Amino acid sequence: MFTSTGSSGFYKAPLSKSLLLVPGALSLLLTLLLPHCQKFFEYDLQAVKNDFQIWRLLCGRIICLDLKDTFCSSLLIYNFRIFERRYGSRKFASFLLGSWVLSALFDFILVEALQYSFDMTAASNLPSGFLAPVFALFVPFYCSIPRVQVAQILGQFSITNKTLIYILGLQLFTSGSYIWIVAISGLISGICYNNSVLKVHQVLCIPRWVAMLFSWTLEPIFSSSEPTNEARIGMGATVDIQRQQRMELLDRQLMLSQFAQVRRQRQQQGGMINWNRLFPPLRQRRDINYQDGRQSEQQASPPLEVSEEQVARLMEMGFSRGDALEALRASNNDLNVATNFLLQH
Length: 345
Fold this sequence. Notes:
By secondary structure, this protein is mainly α. Helix content is 63%, strand content 3%.
């Protein structure tokens, strides 16, 4: 359903699998069989503040008491497993832990700000569940996964590989009266952790020995084998080829995001891509031709016509028109070769 998450299943994503199965199962259990126990899992900041029920910061921020929130957050965790595959379970767990801890602090700040400014009492009405880290994952999703257009509606509205995930996040954002407080605190904590504000990523991280302990004990339980029945990508493609194509697409998207960031820095500094390093033979020939004067102008062949459609596709990926034209001409209008050169240099 979503094109930005690579191959299906939880291969190389045991933490994502555990976050989807365990809280989801406990949420169903509390809703269907143990409704009288739900009061112990309510996220009540008023009780934390007045009655010093610190344990609610733990119990109230793990299990969703609303099945709609459970369903939406589970779908988002499934699609965000891409980051665990890319960066590893330890770094992924450190991000979740950091955003989970920071969001509790921001929840207190936002609730007190509402109470002081608008006399709104929201401390006892916050939604329960592992919601803030899910919203925090939208920060690296926005920054690291590039937009790739997959369809267009009415000639003006573009449907990208990220549209449906944003719609799902909006659905979760509007599922309750005060869930927006948890969402905003999650986004702020995600920004702080993703940008290493005050070196929070060094303080709120999973120790190596804890990661090794869980890898020995829990990873065998939640690990998944390589997918063997993936949807076909091309006619006659084997499973290995399909999986490799998906992983290559994912790598290309992440590399594209990193390249775009470097490009923005170069543009701010007034720099440009070093095409001499990209295509030295081509540049050397052009320099020789310029030195030859009229003789080179007479012998030079007319410039290769470049497809505007291919130029538009490269520009949608974040490249400038000049770089796109140069890469397509140097690669003889081969879009794949031009894209690879732009990503790697």
